[in-house]
Structure formats: C-alpha cells, structure tokens
C-alpha cells in the first residue's frame, strides 16, 4: 500500500495536489470512491482525504471504511456531522436515498471542513452535486463531480432536464427517452423512482442533472472502448450544453483490504473454488443492497439446481445488511441445501467478489448489473447473464448486451412489476450461456480492452493524469 508513484506533477515541478473526496451512501458508491482514493494516492502521487458521515447506513460500509483507513493510514479522514432533519415524509423510502437527502441538507456544514483542509479540489458524488457545487464555489475550491455508474446512465442523467423541459413540463410522467447519439432508454428501463415526479430520488436526480454545467469537471468510472458513444456524447456536449471537461477514468482498479473485510468473511468459498474445474461455476449475486422476493428466490434455487452446473450464490434477505436476521435454511429450505451440497455453495456472508470473478473456476456471472459488478466482470473477462432489478441496472444491462459479453432477457422481472421468472427459464439460459463460446471470446476481449484503458498510457490512465494535473495547477 505504501509504494507510491510520485506522479507527473512531481516531475513537472507542480505542487502535490490534495484531493478531498465526498462519497454519498451505499457500497455501490463507496467502492468506486475508495478505488479512486487509492489510485490517486498510490499511482498519481496525490494527497487524499475522504469525508465520512457516521454511522453509515450499512455495516458493509462501516467495515469498508475502517479497512481503507487501516491499510492506507496516509489517506485522511474528515468527519462530517449530519444535520438532523425530520423524516416523516420519507417513511418507507429507500434508506440509502434518505441518506443522500441527509447529506444534501448538511451541505453547508462542509464549508468549515473544507476551509480547514487546504484542499486543491473537491470530488463529490453525483447524488450531492447540486448542493455541493455552490458550497465549493463560495470557497473558490474547484469542484468535480464523480459519477460512479455507467457513462450511458450519466448521459441519460445529463440529458433528462432537456427531455423534461421539452416533453414533460408540469411534472408529467417520463416516457421513452432517446438520449441523443447514445441510445434509446425505453420507459420500462427508466429507474423506478423517476416515474414519480415527487419521489425524493427524482427531485435530487433532476437537480443534479441541471447542476452539471456549473462543475469544474466530471469524472466517470467508465472507459472509452466499452461505451464509446456515451463517452463521446458527454465530451462533445451532445447530451447537454455547456458541460465541463469529462474524464473517463474506469474501470478503477480494486485495492485489497485484507484486514477489514476478511473479518466478516469466512473465506470458505475460495478453497471450494480452487477445487472446481476451470470455468465450471456460475457465480450469482444481486449486489449489496437488494433482496429478491421469497417466491423468486425459490425459483432461482430450483433453476440453478436444474441447470446441472456448479454454483456459488450470495443470498441477501433484506435491503440493509444490519436488519438481516434470516437464515439460509429459512429462505431456501433445508432440503435444497442438502441436495446441492458439494455442487452448490450458498452463503449470506460478504464475499470478496473481485477475487471470485478473477478465479479461473468461474465461468458465468448472474448479476443484477450494478455498475461495479459490471466493471468487475469486464475486468475479469467473465460473461454476464444480466438480471437487472432496480435503478440504473437495466441501462447497464443494455451496455453489457450491446458490448456482447453477456445476455439480457428483457422480460425478466423488475422490481415493482408482477411476475416470477421460472426455474425452467433460468436453467435454460444458464445452460445456453455456459456453452456459448462466442460470448466467452467477447468477454476475453473486453477484459483486454479494460486492462489497456487503465495501464500507463491508456485512455483512462491519461484522463486521470490530466485531472490530477488540473488539480495541481489550480484550474
Ligand atoms: N460486493 C462484494 N461482495 C458481496 C456483495 C457485493 O464484494 O458479497 C461488492 C461488489 O464487488 C461491488 C459492490 O459490492 O463492488 C456492489 O456494487 P454494485 O454496483 O455491483 O451493486 P449495488 O450493491 O450498488 O447494487
Ligand atoms: N452483508 C453485506 N455486506 C457485508 C456483510 C454482509 O451486505 O459487508 C449482508 C450479507 O449478504 C447478509 C447480511 O448482510 O445478507 C448478513 O451478513 P453477515 O456477514 O452479518 O452474516 P452472518 O455472518 O451474521 O450470517
């Protein structure tokens, strides 16, 4: 962790920049922020601070932050104390979105933290953009916005205000959205919350979209070769007028945190994977923050069983990990667990997904297509059977399908829609993809392209170096 590349600014005699990072909430945002933190620190010679707001929503975030600061003691922690606010109008709202709102309402409290930090630049999460940019401007601190998901979704977000002004004035519902020069996002792929103009997420999303032009620059965890149209449309301003420079810096590389995450991780799946033949295992995970309904869980279990393939399945019972008191046998039944014993490994614990995806035994990833999962599959060259459920996941599944390193059955269930995908459907699709040589080849070429992008001299490497250069020269 302590080996550092001193960065271009050192050879050019610029001062070492101090970059302050401000993530929002949920592992899907925290993971790419910590990857950005460690890459800026280790590969580009920056001083780095991370703003944290405690307690975190999930215990996964608490463990991840503890591990970051333990393994990288030089990365400083700035603690933000959240302003208290009334939540009654948010009863039943997604706890991660409620945290975005709490952070947004605490934006003014950032001023003293930032003023005391002698920062060169602030990099804030997209969920906080519209409230944080004015605070940074007041301090004359350059403010960059980091979009932790796909460039395609970023293009959608940047374009949405224009779409609404033209088509849906007066709070009408969102229909199919043709993102210029990028792709059509059909109404059925628009994140669920955005269909309700009064949802807190919708209000934040639109305000953030409108604020992008006032940022000093935009970072996205994407790379040119995977989403060429979307990256170009953001850079050329096709999706919104007056956007600042765009830096496509992905897929940001993982930093391993052995100390922290291992504590909660039995790790027994790694020796099990070692004992399986190459590309024989289907890895199944729907991310860190959503559980499948019970009836869908049983069909998935039966489908994996019927596919005849080996599998490693990470099961979640609740949205927030702290609330999860369920037992595997309650969720899936003792009979199932006994029947698949040896052939299928099912766990409710946190697994080190990047290691799992890099393991030679893994041949397919059934994924909800959270963007981090997609980038990890791309970097590992593992084909994806996409089963998006929520938020930006259908847009991301479209990226996977267009790039050809996976498949997406568009009629498969989406949160808020009725219908359960049957065991037969699941088994058939798994068998097909496990036997698909073409998809495996494409996945291998995507892996090569991802590696080239982040290697010294690659498109993402150069983009991040240019961002660092701007930070150290104060622009
Ligand atoms: N993750 C993991 N182990 C788990 C579950 C998730 O390492 O058991 C990681 C995964 O590798 C990814 C992140 O948590 O980096 C989840 O982010 P993603 O965008 O894929 O989905 P989200 O959880 O936000 O829906
Ligand atoms: N979990 C998570 N992130 C973590 C650890 C756990 O999302 O870092 C989820 C996990 O998938 C499970 C639940 O939280 O659904 C309980 O996990 P824990 O590791 O606490 O399970 P235990 O070891 O107590 O069975």
Automatic annotation (TrEMBL):
Catalytic activity annotation: a 3'-hydro-2'-hydroxy-beta-oxodihydrochalcone + UDP-alpha-D-glucose = a 3'-(beta-D-glucopyranosyl)-2'-hydroxy-beta-oxodihydrochalcone + UDP + H(+)
Keyword Lipoprotein: no
Keyword Transmembrane helix applies: yes
Record EC number: 2.4.1.-
Cross-referenced InterPro entries: UDP-glycosyltransf_plant (IPR050481), UDP_glucos_trans (IPR002213), UDP_glycos_trans_CS (IPR035595)
One Pfam family of this chain: UDPGT
GO molecular function annotation: 2-hydroxyflavanone C-glucosyltransferase activity; UDP-glucosyltransferase activity
Ranges that cross the membrane: 109-133, 139-160
Keywords: Glycosyltransferase, Membrane, Transferase, Transmembrane, Transmembrane helix
Family: Belongs to the UDP-glycosyltransferase family.
Protein name: Glycosyltransferase
Source species of the chain: Oryza meyeriana var. granulata
Lineage, highest ranks first: Eukaryota, Viridiplantae, Streptophyta, Embryophyta, Tracheophyta
